[in-house]
Batch of 3 targets.
Target 1
Amino acid sequence: MTLITFGELFCGPGGIGLGAKQAKLITADDIYEIDHQWAIDSDIDSCRTFQHNICPDEPHKVICADIREFDITKLSPVNGFAFGFPCNDFSIVGEKKGLNGKYGSLFSYGVKIIQHLEPDWFLAENVSGLKSDNQGKTFSQMLEILSNAGSGYRLTTHLYRFEEYGVPQCRHRIVIVGFKKSLDKIFRVPMPTHNNSFMSVESALCNPPIPANAPNHEYTRQSPIVVERLKYIKQGENAWSANIPSHLQLNVKKARMSQIYRRLVPNKPAYTITGSGGGGTHVYHWEEPRALTNRERARLQTFPDDFIFFGSKESVRKQIGMAVPPKAVQIIITAILKTLAGVSYPYVEPKWKDIFSEDGSFQLSLSLDNP
């Protein structure tokens, strides 16, 4: 058996961790699996969640610390490294401050780890809004920095539509996979598994039904005015598109986000599950006048029902919304294992093509079309 040692930064509750743990490649001569060595996050609840579900027998592998104050020289070498750096400064919901924002600057700490440890490969994930920040200049700058980190990496950058990979949610995320140039390997974007047969919300939540005693399945007490408002909002509509009586309408003069009190459509994937936002952003049932429970949100993120989240109800909502769907991660990391093993697999051309000249210098052909 070949164990691929693995480390994570900004690990959250374990979306990437679980997907990596589930990834496995069996060839005629060997078995390839991921072996977690360490995971870092500053959120205590996320660290507890990760420990309980990913490494319950080795809780010391989870380092609860602010990476800005942590000595990365203490980290053990790993073959693979992942960092889903915080997306607040690139999200359409955030203030879009880019690399100069509080969260955007955290990207540099992932680069520092790559520089220091020089893993064979890395995986970086962020929101699709990253591509348009500063007219694409921020994204281009990030890719150039990553390609030149350490002894150099060959990047494969793609805008994944996770509904095309069996996730019951329209969640579009940029995933950058880098392989050390000296390995002479090129990662290919795995072919979608659900191009013409998306997993629907109703199928995800009702087949099978969620047990009443499932963890993190507490119902939210909706106020009478919210219940009354939801009665006027049809499937797929939100607080702005529905025909709502004036006394139930929201008094909002600024940007009107489409997620506000937006109802799901049962025979389609959900819209994006988020971890931030106030009232009206909690994802609303297509039939019952209520927000989804955290367990229901977790199912739409492809976490199994026995995956327990720790912390307050709001903390759990945030953890779920910020996580990367494990099902999508499993597919991507399995493709990484196949790349390492030299096993071919069906693939598609990446959304962006990174072009390297013969001397290894970086050029980028960037598409800014809408997802």
Target 2
Amino acid sequence: MSEIEEFYRGMTPDGSGRLIEEVWQMSHAELERTHDYIQWLFPTWVRSKFVPDAPVLDLEIREAFLNDEELRSRLLLSLDLMLKFFGLERRDEVIRRSPEFDDLRDHWLTVGNHNQLRLTRIMLSLWTLGFEPVVQSLHQCLRVIALEYRNRVAEETLAHWDDAARVG
């Protein structure tokens, strides 16, 4: 079993010694100031330049997430944690603003904010692990927000979001 699978099953900690359940319990302030958990929650094919020891996806891990309902539901718990952080929420495969959006938007909705990179990673990981409809909905929600809050999301970020959602 891969390190990512063991982490997702709560059997092994991440590189900082946290079990996934501990990450899921982090406050918004902890999620903001901690920078080494997102690579574990949302792994991609590419090694992180910020957390180079974080594991990366391979075909075996991808297959495990595509075919194991427990892994899939735990990945959605990670998504829900991060959506809440951004002031968003998920209803099945539909992503929309939550009632807390207005209170939470300013900590990520600024040009060059590192949380916008986190959104790219989340979409890339979810797409790869078989959650295309969720990614499409998140992308659409983010595009509407970016249109409403002009000049708070750089064109380069929008392009990354489009690439992550396979748009265009």
Target 3
Amino acid sequence: MSGIVNCAAYSEGRRVGDVQISEISEILKQPDRFVWLGLHEPDQALLREVQQELGLHDLAIEDAHTAHQRPKLERYDDSLFIVLRTARWNRERHQIDLGETHFFIGARYMVSIRHGSLVSYKTVRAHAETTPHLLSKGPGFVLYALMDFLVDQYFPVVDSLEDDMEAFEKKIIHESLSREETSRMYALKRDLLELKRAVSPLVDICSRLTRLDLEPIPAGTRPYYRDVYDHAVRINERLDGLRESLSAVLEANLFLAAVAQNEATKKLAGWAAIVAVPTMVGTIYGMNFEFMPELRWRFGYPMVMVVSVLMCAFLYSRFKRAGWL
């Protein structure tokens, strides 16, 4: 069926076989088995069928179908509904591709629903099936494996962002950034904000999963979530450092731009003052007064020119020593 990635039953940590959606309720009647169902952008009809088989809450199903939810953990009776964001670094477009994954977890079932995510969980399932002693812990361990894989996907993204930031920091030391580079920095700021919104709630979610008040998470699996919690905290701290560095680089770029503008303004003011001297002299002699003694003097014209040049040279030397030119 379209939207179903994988649906299998497990017993004592080993895969029993694939099952149909309509068979899940019968499988769950066997106390030694649990079901792991993976979906990718399912339609409403498929979600309703899953809801009927597992008895999921209407509000959670509505959120899972609508998508575009904030990261969160909600409890409905004896099940949990968890929303997490996925991130993948797109090397071609040099940006972050964000997706979304919803988890329904009960005592003997795990349902993962991917929306807009290019990251497949097939490798997680394959790896978990090679460790039956851990998979025998049930859906609680499956949730840990999926969350651990999801959080690990953040590290390459953060590494790429740090490389970009380092390149900007090295260039800002020697020269101001170009218009295109400044645009890239603001795009980086937007990506950091989106990633921060995805990671920050993850810290609280992992913290809640380690507590003893969540029945679908067995006590034997709760220590594993501390590892995910530590990774989430590390990523969150690195993002905070990147945001501070980005703000510092943007401020430095604005400061250098203001300095360059001030230098240009001083040069323009200096040349304007120099040009004002001959302009003033030309304006005086352009008034065509009849009684101007130097007009009939033999050296009147050369003297005016020499005085104008000397005044311009004097102003130029003063502005040069002052660093305006």
